[in-house]
Amino acid sequence: MSEPIVRGWCPGALRPMASGDGLVVRVRPRFARLTAAQVLGLCALADRYGDGGLELTNRANLQIYGVAEADHAALIEGLAGLGLLDADAAVEGRRNVLISPFWQEDDLTVRLVAALYDALLDLPKLPPKVGFAVDTGEAPMLARDPADFRFERSDAGLILRADGAAKGRVVSEAQAIPALIELAQLFNDTRTPEQRRVRDWVAELPDDWQRATPLPSSPRIQPGEQGAFAAPFGRIEVADLVSLLTHSDAQAIRVTPWRMLLVEGNCPDAHPGLVTDPADPLLTTSACRGAPACPQGTVETRQLARALAPHVPDLHVSGCAKGCARVTSAAVTIVGRDGLYDVVQQGCAWDAPSLSGLTAADLSAHFKGRT
């Protein structure tokens, strides 16, 4: 079996990534927010040039799959017209910024994000997947989400914390971005080539960056609360999203890293294709696109995941050992290998399996027979 290819960078709009059914084009909404007009325009582009869906990433971005190379230029023109494009690929590649979704106009979170956007090219050149979190609401909400440098609150005020460190440095709002540049430069200057994420390097962090403890994290919002709609496996069909907006007075949506959209404005309590029941088993189920959409996947994933979700709480189905849909441990992880499936108990896609060489029918009989 050939090993899956691990790419060291994320796709963008200006720098798309090839997949099994065409290009992957990632859209990074500024402040993780799109107006209703931008949403409808993006849906039209995804329907015309993509595979008819939008997929939410764990960095609160949106991805269009299945874009033909010949259509990429037209798609880019459309994104630019919607105000969803960065000035150049260098800025786009650095704008990996998570923002706590319940920000208010001109609050500290918004001001810090705006300052960070303006300072992106002042940062040292960091490994491609390095990202930032601005999580300065009353309590952190993004502590379990991927970011290397985190702005949070402590009892002493605003802090900058390196991912993996229990404490951070107290900074004023004026000091925040200079301190971030200093910490990023320290990371770059002292890390090894293998230390491409801050959590791998954080043992080298000096004590003066570890003084203040962040406030306790707040629970994540649940589907059905405050206009939150969850997308099974992170995928939303554009027809469902267009219908949601046209059957509500939504002014905008906010994208979260939790496979959920937050709708600004009055909206229905439920809508086809989206989940508002926090007990829905699909909410604890992860699955990548699998074969044939992904060239590295050797098995179908999402149909199997839907079938098994009611019987296997905390399930991850991965088309290959990369585990793109979930990088943390699951109670059961099903991994594609050479057209068949392996099963990992209490582990990740790359861990040693307890069962190997199973078919979809084998898995169905095994797990459905336990309930």
3D architecture notes:
By secondary structure, the protein is of the alpha+beta class. It folds into 3 domains: 17-91 and 221-264, Sulfite Reductase Hemoprotein,Domain 2 (Sulfite Reductase Hemoprotein, domain 2), CATH 3.90.480; 102-209, no CATH class; 281-368, Sulfite Reductase Hemoprotein, domain 1. It has helices at 36-49, 72-81, 89-94, 108-119, 173-190, 198-201, 238-246, 302-308, 360-368, and strands at residues 17-19, 22-27, 33-35, 53-56, 62-67, 97-99, 132-134, 149-154, 157-162, 169-170, 228-230, 235-237, 252-255, 260-264, 285-287, 315-318, 330-337, 340-347, 355-358. The protein has a 5-stranded antiparallel β-sheet with strand order 1-2-5-4-12. A 5-stranded mixed β-sheet has the order 6-7-8-9-10, covered by helices on one side. Strand 18 (340-347) and strand 19 form a beta hairpin. Helix 1 packs antiparallel against helix 7 (238-246). The longest helix has 18 residues, at 173-190. The two termini are 33 Å apart.
Quick synopsis:
The chain is of the alpha+beta class and 371 residues long. The protein has helices at 36-49, 72-81, 89-94, 108-119, 173-190, 198-201, 238-246, 302-308, 360-368, and strands at residues 17-19, 22-27, 33-35, 53-56, 62-67, 97-99, 132-134, 149-154, 157-162, 169-170, 228-230, 235-237, 252-255, 260-264, 285-287, 315-318, 330-337, 340-347, 355-358. It has three domains: 17-91 and 221-264, Sulfite Reductase Hemoprotein, domain 2 (Alpha-Beta Complex); 102-209, no CATH class; 281-368, Sulfite Reductase Hemoprotein, domain 1, CATH 3.30.413.
